[in-house]
Design brief:
0% of the residues lie in helices and 60% in strands. It contains no helices and 11 strands. Strands 2, 4, 5, 6, 9, 10 and 11 form a 7-stranded mixed sheet that branches. The relative contact order is 0.33.
Amino acid sequence: QVQLVESGGGLVQAGGSLRLSCAASGSGLSINDMGWYRQAPGKQRDLVAFIGSGGTTSYADSVKGRFTISRDNAKNTGYLQMDSLKPEDTAVYYCNALVTSIGYAKYYWGQGTQVTVSS
């Protein structure tokens, strides 16, 4: 059974940093396209960062220059490095990735991890 397992959320003061991880469980799998989304209470889930299979990245304007998305293909793990955090970054963060294997390709969501930034 394929799962995306997230870790790294928590409580941090404004100006601090956190690194989120998203690992694909299961053997013979690869993570390709990956996006990190966030959802604050009462709001829709928004894309904040994306990395394509070729390594190209894109970011929401609200996080440009502060967040960095990356992927370690050897570990089948994606990351979101979040620096200079602001209270408005508080949300549940979700990864969404295209997981592939031989004859198999499907998008999965992680379980979500809470990020809380105090002022």
